[in-house]
Amino acid sequence: MCAKRCKREQPHFLDQPVLVVRKYQTLDKQYYTVLWQYATEAGNPREARVLSVVLQDRRTLFGDSRYCDAALGVLERATGEHFGAGAQSIVERDAATARALTWLRSAGLAK
C-alpha cells in the first residue's frame, strides 16, 4: 500500500530541479539566480523545464533586464529557435516571452 502511495507522491525526476528553483524564487533571490543559471547549462529537457519557471518571472534582474529576458536568451541558444530575445521595449519582450512559453507548452515542457 505504501509503495503505491509513496510512488504517486514523488515528482518525476525531471521536475525536481523545477521544484527547487520555484521554491527559492521567492525565498532567496541570490540563490535562485545562481541555481537557475547552473540548472540550465546541461542542454537537456530539465533545462527547458527550469526555464519555463524563470520565463514567468517578470522581476528586475539588473537595470531594465528581467529574469524572463535572461531566460529567453538562454532558451534561444539552447533550442536554436528565435522568439525575439533582445527586443528593446517591454511590450516586445513580453510578446517574445509569451511565444517562448507557448512553444514550451506545445512541446510538453511547461505547464
DSSP strand tally: 2
Question: What general outline do the C-alpha atoms trace?
Answer: globular
Task: Count up the domains.
Answer: 1
Q: Which strand-content bin applies to the residues?
A: under 5%
Low-confidence stretches: none
Give the N-terminus to C-terminus distance in angstroms. 30 Å
Order of helices and strands: HHHHEEHH
Annotation keywords:
mainly alpha; 111 residues; single chain; 6 helices
Structure overview:
Helices cover 64% and strands 5% of the residues. A hairpin with a 2-residue loop joins strand 1 and strand 2. It contains six helices and two strands, in the order ααααββαα. The protein has one domain. The radius of gyration is 15 Å and the shape is globular. Strands 1-2 form a two-stranded antiparallel ribbon. Helix 2 runs parallel beside helix 4 (45-54), helix 4 packs antiparallel against helix 5 (67-79) and helix 5 crosses helix 6 (90-106). The protein is mostly helical and 111 residues long.
